[in-house]
Amino acid sequence: MESLGIAMIGCGTVGGGVAKLLDEQRVRLAERCGRNLVLRRVVVRDPSKIRANVPKAIVSTDASAAIHDPAVSVVLELVGGVTTAREHVLAALKAGKHVVTANKHLLAEHGAEIFETARKYERTVAFEASVAGGIPIIAAILQCLSANQVTAIQGILNGTSNFILSSMAEQGTGYAEALKEAQKRGYAEADPTLDVDGSDAAHKLAILAQIAFGVTAPFEAIERIGIANLHEMDLRFASELGYTIKLLAEAWLVEKEVALHVAPVLLRETDMLAQVRGAFNAVQVNGDAVGEMMFQGAGAGALPTASAVVADLVDLAVGRAQQTFQAAKLWSTNVRGFTLRPSQEVRSRFYLRVLVADKPGMLADVARVLADHSISIASVIQHEALEDHAEAIVPLVIMTHYAPTGQFRKAVEKINQLKGAIPPGVYYSVDD
Amino acid sequence: MESLGIAMIGCGTVGGGVAKLLDEQRVRLAERCGRNLVLRRVVVRDPSKIRANVPKAIVSTDASAAIHDPAVSVVLELVGGVTTAREHVLAALKAGKHVVTANKHLLAEHGAEIFETARKYERTVAFEASVAGGIPIIAAILQCLSANQVTAIQGILNGTSNFILSSMAEQGTGYAEALKEAQKRGYAEADPTLDVDGSDAAHKLAILAQIAFGVTAPFEAIERIGIANLHEMDLRFASELGYTIKLLAEAWLVEKEVALHVAPVLLRETDMLAQVRGAFNAVQVNGDAVGEMMFQGAGAGALPTASAVVADLVDLAVGRAQQTFQAAKLWSTNVRGFTLRPSQEVRSRFYLRVLVADKPGMLADVARVLADHSISIASVIQHEALEDHAEAIVPLVIMTHYAPTGQFRKAVEKINQLKGAIPPGVYYSVDD
């Protein structure tokens, strides 16, 4: 049986999972792709460390030697980041090697350069593990839904954030405490910034926007609102209104424009995405033929992510990955002609919570500002004064009907300036 | 651009959807597979009928002429049933044509013959639409989860049954009324027998068992319990205990044996499958690397099913389907060596509801029988006497711990014979 030689650059959590599967499931994998998947080289920073499932003889610090080894035909990039990862990927393609990567950050920022280089050298880049870990969302959109134009994507793409929001909503814990628990369980990094500020989800959304709509979205073009400032009070009000707040990465097709954002969004409690708890990931995809679909599973972790990486290796061994790569023409000519819609033009319903002095006329003033901006109110909650404020302060919660985001934001700016209002008014999109 | 010539045999609901996609999305599909997908022949019983998206000139009643047309390289079998469908599929393969089919009944009964013929004539059979309509569960298991051994599958594979159960649980409607509503909405056939008795789901489960475990399950080997005798009372008790009842098609790997059944099952209300409402389908798959995954979407309907059929056509045009077919070796040698586990050996928790005379000692008698069969009780509900019985009758509801099915059934037989019990005792599996 022929072999497929693999060089793995980086051997952290995911790399360990990949080595485990390649080693322990050798027979199973060979049976499924008609070739032996053989790990020939593993490149790490510290070769003295003992690694399970990795023979010491194949470990080195020399990425270039691994890439240029004639026995290697696939380079698996698992170092992360965008600097050396980019160099390794480009070098591998130029050396005539296929590339498998789980690096969303790299593809989101350098997708065009990498895919162009791959096409030039007639090599394939496979990247199933870069979005939503073990969930095969890339294959689903590129292959399984190929009869459809995707019209909308809503994803819970960051497990750390979802774990935090689930804990806050279900146990009523505060943000800081929920984050600590996520770190204790190994979901969140010591520095969780990229998770909780929406950057990680935005990188993944950029990849999904490319495969579903053919648009290249610069990172700055994706509006990001994280969860670090989300208040327990807003989760409670949302719940009272029958909604759950989730950090969603969303992309919609509106006419010929694609709207993208990462933000906390209010979902109806009966919505499938609202049910996704803990560190799970989920992606809802709407297709113009298939309708609404949802995929849910582990979005991170050694073995779930390795499951996606090894599926790419199997696809390369079988030859499917090469065909998909050629057919998909990613980061290439924008054949569908979609462009990005500026965020202020996106129409949405909104949840607005503003703290106001407990005095007559405040609701009238806020409602007047919204009316002046042609924003129609769907419902209102006004509660008793908050106990933890010295003066009498009440939270005023308003759900609006659909309005353009830019228009709504102008209204909130005005509301922030109202006498008796305690800025800033906090607002989130509402999905129906 | 080269063409892929298609002959479609049968042009009902799904055929109409396929014709619509091929006609209206011609440009999109050609762009995605580098070939024009061209409908060359449509074979129907009544060619005089006007069909949208199908030029009259390509319609005929002559299946053989369509199959042997040199301009046709793929035959799309959409007639359903197992008699003429089998003949057309075998004839097509022998004529050197690839086959795409949505016919679960045919594959469940004649999979071995069809796949063997396809291998002999070096042609491909693609069948994504045969299970769960628009949900790409075949591709998910065969390709995307190729690094995994699937360890369990739980599917809501019959939309009609799920619609009926959802209506009964949510609106408290009776079975007959819910079925009528399903028929009114076009979910259920005039004769809904195959839907509600579990046969349709069992056909789909046989296909999933083949692709996930490599086992060929004769139809009779899959135990089927339908929903036609499900009583509202049991939905209410289940709800009281925190469970929802769903008609599930389930397959588990236990040691080297695969257990299969289609039956109403109690799921915890927080379980993802318990949330699947209305006519949707959903499949939960556990893989030994990826963990728990769930796929949800439309399991029937013209365009969702056509979405899966056309994805197969695209995969054939690109060449992926041929590679997957070769690599998967379906209905072939059972390389994994799994066998079927007899249903009585399957261990499960059970919900048991038995009507008993409202007299002292009944609970003691029932509990004694269970104890004599080494079945341990987890919880009990006993309610007030039922109003609609002339004599005083009470429903006794017992949730057991794990027990072998055969052992449990023997106990129920004994309980049915107890003095004061009104047989039969009704029982369902409980998934935790």
Q: Can I get a quick summary?
A:
The structure is a homodimer of 432-residue chains. The first copy, chain A, is 38% helix and 27% strand.
What does this structure look like?
2 copies of one chain form a homodimer. Chain A is of the alpha/beta class. The first copy, chain A, has 3 domains: 3-133 and 304-328, NAD(P)-binding Rossmann-like Domain (Rossmann fold); 137-297, Dihydrodipicolinate Reductase, domain 2; 347-431, ACT domain (Alpha-Beta Plaits), CATH 3.30.70.260. Chain A is 38% helix and 27% strand. Chain A contains 15 helices and 18 strands. Chain A has helices spanning 13-24, 26-33, 63-68, 84-94, 104-120, 137-144, 159-171, 175-184, 193-196, 199-213, 232-240, 302-318, 320-328, 362-372, 405-416; strands at 3-9, 36-43, 59-60, 74-77, 98-101, 125-126, 150-156, 223-224, 243-254, 257-268, 280-287, 291-298, 339-340, 347-357, 377-382, 393-400, 403-404, 421-431. In chain A, strands 7, 8, 9, 10, 11, 12, 13, 14, 15, 16, 17 and 18 form a 12-stranded mixed β-sheet that branches. The first copy, chain A, has a 6-stranded parallel β-sheet with strand order 3-2-1-4-5-6, with helices on both faces. In chain A, a hairpin with a 2-residue loop joins strand 9 and strand 10. In chain A, helix 7 packs across helix 8. The radius of gyration of chain A is 24 Å and the shape is elongated. The model of chain A has no long low-confidence stretch (mean pLDDT 94). At the A-B interface, helix 2, helix 6, strand 12, helix 12 and helix 13 of A face helix 2, helix 6, strand 12, helix 12 and helix 13 of B.
